């Protein structure tokens, strides 16, 4: 499997466990807590596998970028977080950074 695909899946799992933190309610709800921890472990394992073939700085930056981008978008959708020009600009910069690292 392509290391970029593995890294993308790891990034999506980062989104899942980041949102899971909200649903776990401070780790007080057992099922969301278990799913959050499982997602985090899977995300880290896949990130480490992607780093076998990708530069560590690039892999980590793309992984966190996917996580930040996905979490920011889903927070608006799921939790009605506000959307304003500054937030949209920040998300656009994350996308630009991920694209630049992928091309580098």
TrEMBL record:
This is Guanidinium exporter. Pfam families: Multi_Drug_Res (PF00893). Belongs to the drug/metabolite transporter (DMT) superfamily. Small multidrug resistance (SMR) (TC 2.A.7.1) family. Gdx/SugE subfamily. The keyword Ubl conjugation does not apply. Keywords: Cell membrane, Membrane, Transmembrane, Transmembrane helix, Transport. It comes from Rhodobacter flavimaris. The chain crosses the membrane at residues 28-47, 59-79. The lineage of its organism: Bacteria, Pseudomonadati, Pseudomonadota, Alphaproteobacteria, Rhodobacterales. It is found in: Cell membrane. It is a multi-pass membrane protein.
